[in-house]
Write a structure and sequence with these properties.
Nuclear Transport Factor 2, Chain: A, 6-stranded mixed sheet, 4 helices, globular
Amino acid sequence: MRQEDLVDQFAIQRVITEYAWFVDRRDWDALVVTLADTVVVDYTAMSGGEAETLPGPEQVDRWRRELGVLDGTQHVVTGVIADVTGDTATATANVLAWLRRDNVPGGRLWHNGGTYEFELRRASERWRISRLVARPIWIEGNIGVFAQRPG
């Protein structure tokens, strides 16, 4: 493996880690920088519906609204494996996610484990996520943590 390949591998692992880190810390401004100008987010394997394509800042605003009702989240992303072709890349990783909301009927946690699949693009000397697909292997807990009002 060439030195440039190692640099790309590290940079891709870093941006994927930053994505999870910034979501969990509610650092929405920093999160925007991890995304491409347009991003496809696909949670259909977890929650149905259809994949959505939005400008990066709009996707971050959506996460801010959806996750803003929660008291905390933790995403643990490990085992990132990336394949780079020029200025594009694909990557896969294992993920464990815990979402917590206190004072809701049915329990305060919803958690899952599975894989993330990413597509990334190099832009301005930085890798950015252009596609994110969540593929759950298991899901447990109270999906009601996403309800807008407790009770």
